[in-house]
Amino acid sequence: MQVYLPIAEISVNAFLLLGVGGGVGLLSGMFGVGGGFLITPLLFFIGVPPTVAVATGVNQVVASSISGVLAHLQRKTVDLRMGVVLLVGGMVGSGIGIWLFNLMSRLGQIDLVVQLSYVVFLGAIGLMMLQEGTRALLRSRNPGAIRRKLHTHIWVHNLPFKMKFRTSGLYISVFPPLVLGMAVGVLAAIMGVGGGFIMVPAMIYLLGMPTKVVVGTSLFQIMFVAAFTTMMHAVTNHSVDVLLAVFLIVGGVIGAQVGTRMGLRLRPEMLRILLALLVLAVCGKIAFDLLWTPAELYSISVPGRI
Amino acid sequence: MRVVVLLALLIAAALPVRAEEILAGLSQKQLSLTVNFEGSEILVYGAVRREGPIPEDSDLNVIVTIEGPPVPAVIWRKARRMGVWVNVESMRIRAAPSFYAVAATGPLERILGMDDDLRHRISTRLAIFEAREDATVANPAAFSDALIRIRSREDLYQQLETAVTLERDTLFSSTISLPKNLIEGTYATRVFLVRDGVVIDRYDAEIDVQKAVLERWLYNMAYESPFMYGALALLIALFFGWGASAAFRILRA
Prior knowledge:
The complex is a heterodimer.
Chain A: E1 2-5, E2 10-13, H1 14-31, H2 36-45, H3 50-74, H4 80-107, H5 110-141, E3 162-165, E4 170-173, H6 175-191, H7 196-206, H8 211-237, H9 242-265, H10 268-291, E5 298-301
Antiparallel strand pairs in A: 1-2, 3-4
Chain B: H1 2-14, E1 20-26, E2 30-33, E3 40-50, E4 60-67, E5 70-81, E6 84-97, E7 100-104, H2 108-111, H3 114-120, H4 124-129, H5 140-153, E8 157-160, E9 164-167, E10 171-178, E11 185-195, E12 198-211, H6 213-224, H7 226-252
Parallel strand pairs in B: 2-12, 7-8
Antiparallel strand pairs in B: 1-3, 3-10, 4-7, 4-11, 5-6, 9-10, 11-12
């Protein structure tokens, strides 16, 4: 069954879209990730224009994080104060990202920027996860290895404008969370991702937040930044495709439920290695497209309706 | 269809006309891009009406064109920069048809004279050529070629040299398939009667392609009230995201 997407202005197989949503949902349920970083490139691969893919991908992030946010709010594992500071940074970052996105679209370089960002981030994160996963797998085989300190103070925490974050038990400068939020906001706007893969490690290692509140707080920030970014894309370049989003979301939610149960049966270290390999595969495919001589050297874009 | 053609012939016979005149009709004049639109076929048919006998020693041909709404386009050329393929050069085209099909009873270069091709802009090349905006690029022809090549691959530009059948120099018909990736607007349809390379009559009609109600509504809202549209997108996301996991919780309980 074909569906005509009113904003992307292409006709795509509905089951393919449900499959993409479902597959990514399955993985996100299994690995506990948002999946925005997989949805957007998959949409490129099936021929959705990059602008629509990014803007609709970020809309899908809102849907995939809402139930998590509600669950964490109920369990009180959200540092609201930290969340709001990150969110303020995130909105500024998203604004900058949207501006860059529209500028690059006009210059005809947006595909390149989006693809390069994906190669760089997926490559770095995939390698990091692979290394971390392998180490954890080895450690689980010979227990009794050294454990890490709870958190260490580094120079960025002592910048001016210190603020108390009671839930996290931190008294640090507002600049590191603001800058972190901003960086994630830029990524949300340009790559159509939630940015959890940057946010979570940065909150643990850079801000020194307790792991208990990290996931809830990052989801909280991600949901609002994604919502804000969706709105900005809708207003500035009209590229959110609601119909496309519905298919991805419905597939995604069902997939996530199945994936969560499948994930419980696999060992966490193995999961991390599998996810790392998947991320590297997507990265490799995009890199290949950039480096390999394309079959068609020319491309057409429609100004104003990129 | 036969009845329609016959009827057209009868009406034609009753009217006073020039030496040779073309009468034509379309199987559809309205097309709706619904959610499950998978392309459509348009039958263009008609007849040649003439006073005297069929001229024997000359060549009669029919050309049918369907032209989608013109839109501006930018054509980019990629080149390798620091190992990576990057868009390096572009040519703007003020307006090129978003769809262009030209069907004929034979190869255009054989059946149509250069002068009349220029006058009516019939061949694909000429249909886009004049609209070129700037010629700052070294090789504009390569860019126009690329436009035709890429759109031909998506069936947006079609050159169907033998897709019109002409029977006994009188009855003709042609089926043109419109692909699924159409944009909405008015599709100008022209039928040319060509004798010895010269256009002797033409018939014009329009096909109205519209998005269906829901798509139309979403599209208009996205462009005319983007705030509302953004809010709708968010509401849908929140509703489905929350609703589906709530539904699963109930299912499990």
